[in-house]
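ASSEMBLY PREDICTION REQUEST
Request ID: AP-0331
Submitted by: J.K., bench scientist
Number of chains: two
Total residues: 735
Priority: normal
Notes: Please return the full assembly, not individual chains.
Input sequences:
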Amino acid sequence: MSRNAGSDVKAAYLFIAPAVIGFGVFVGYPLIRSFYLALTKYNGLTDPVFVGLGNFRRLFTTDPAFWPALRATGYLVLLYVPLSLVLGLALAMFCNQRFAGVRVVRTLAYLPVVLPAVATITLWKFMLDPQVGLLNTILDRLGLPTSLWLQSPKMAMPSVVLVMLWGVGGTMIIFLAALQSVPTELYEAAKVDGAGPWSMFFRITMPMISPIMLLQVILQTTAALQTFNQPKILTNGGPGFSTNVLMLSIYNNGFPTLGRIPQLGYASAQVWVLFVIIIAVIALTAKFSSLWTYSDNN
Amino acid sequence: MRIVVKRIMGVTALACAGLLTATACSGGSGSGGSGNGPVTVTVMTWESADTNAAIKKALADFKDDNIKVDLLESPSGQYGDKLASLTQAKKLPDLFWCGNDTEQQYTSQGLLVDWADKIKNGDGDFNADKFVPSAMDNWKTADGQMGGLPSLMNTYGVWYNADAFTAAGLPLPKAGWTWDEMYADAAKLANKNGAKYGLVADQLTSADGPFTMSMYSVSAGGAPFTDNVNHPTKAEADDKYTEGVTKLAAAIKNGSVAPPGYDASNVQSLFAAGKVPMTFGGQWLAAGFQTDKPKIKYGFAPFPQVQTPTTLYDSVGICTPQYTKDQDATFKVLEYINTKVWDAVLPASPVAPPAYTPAQASYFDALTKAQQSTVVDTVKADLAAEKTVGVRFTTQWASQVGDLTTANYQPILSGKKPITDLPAYIDKINGLIKQGS
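STATUS: Completed
Returned structure:
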């Protein structure tokens, strides 16, 4: 190795050092620390006490909130992910057309994504109020049955998902980019062969954007598993445990309401359970992706 | 290249040193000061900006050459989160507003200064005898420590829309009315004039609901939900308690009372707009109604009873971390807040009666001046109530009880589980008590 090459290596290390140090301090250390805390009884006030797998045992055996939290999280994922993909793709296909004002439509569709989330969720909370909310007022005027929305155990989660879908513009933008990268000659050739719109959608569009679809499935599933803002602001987990998703449960254990002692060790155990679930879901999705995604290799 | 690298390293080292220095010098309780200068005592509240401004103005009149008082500017929202992070960082202010449960928990963890002896043997008028006795009792831990002093009393009752009662031909709620009368009134007021429910009683249906239900059983001569919120030995649902739960579940079923899960966060506005005829609430709503005049004629009545007047018991106070730099200076400011500050703050914003009895006059005078006579009467009745029940456990495992309540008690109220499931729920709580002790 020449003298100059040695200097270059040093410089390279120096340049990547901030990223490595940043990762170590802000990701690596918290990760290790949270795993350690998951094995302790720790309230943030006094020193942690090692309890081994005690927190995990309590999670799976005696905690009345844990299984409902898992169920609520699973329900949210099953409801939100397919709807966001279908709606995002439909919106992207609409915005991929050529018509006057398409840029305005694209901007409007993406606008909710850039608006402050807390503000829009709070507005939705007002709209979904059963007594004075806009939705029930409209339904009432139209002579249609009204709903308790966020205050009904059955309707609370669908209402939360409805509010989450308000930000589907983010999904749309990625699908739009994918749609615009599909070679137009494929459609032209299909047209010559007499293919109709549905045939072109299922035989050209879907296979060509399937890698992006895989990415979206993983991104949306991961995001849905970590949903926090909407249930926190809209329902705070209620009624009952109906919208008490895992992230909210973790937050409420780690940062409880005034006067209650934090259970940071226990919350850390929940974090690790969620982490394992996310890794498992991503691994399964990736493993079976070859069955439905298109690539040059298959 | 080498020079450039050296320069980068130099700049980075300087930046790191700067950051470390800034971190070391910043924040914290901020007490102390230089060797010769005055001691700074920091204060943090959960009050609104207006009330904080009034407190700040009042604190400016505190005269002691050796003590400087600094009210920390802090938004009132998310106080619990703020307190938790400051506690974990060991940066709590010298005096901070705290609930009875926080004081009990933090004191038992050895985090707070014990004022018990100081207030017991206090000079002049500032001593334990001048405080509401029940407040002082509840602020003591099992071993007699007091990590803070009660400052304001929270009293509770039923806010009612007098116009709606009159329109429905119902007598106005007043001291001595019964639980049966309340449910009957709620049934008549439901689904009228834009009101869906006749009564919104979050205290009865939330995670703390089982404690509120104690008012029924105790008033009827039965047992409370638990024998002690600070150091419980058992939870109990006797016949009278079960009778109370049965009546509440029936009222929820027939649509008179809002069910568990009802979002009560907006109930004050709905009440003021005439869309909630009756609601359980604290006396502090009076201060809000004084500034934002409701459209309706309203009143505040004591809780209903079966036989004996019974009410909820709750007080808030001011705590001091164990690591405060100068305990004497901090106690002087604490004394000043309890004895002088309320006189300056409560006339403009009568949120609650002080626990220090000589300071209560300004609160009642302000309400009387504002013609809130029903509030004055009810608060006085509550403060004098012979029987009181706690609002929630102050134990470390209180949040686990909350989860059990959500999973068991609330479904009973909603009619999704039978009333016969009540003993199983109580057994689970007793299991936690056993583990906790």
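REVIEWER COMMENTS: The CA atoms of residues 69 and 245 of chain A lie 5 Å apart.
SIGN-OFF: pending second reviewer
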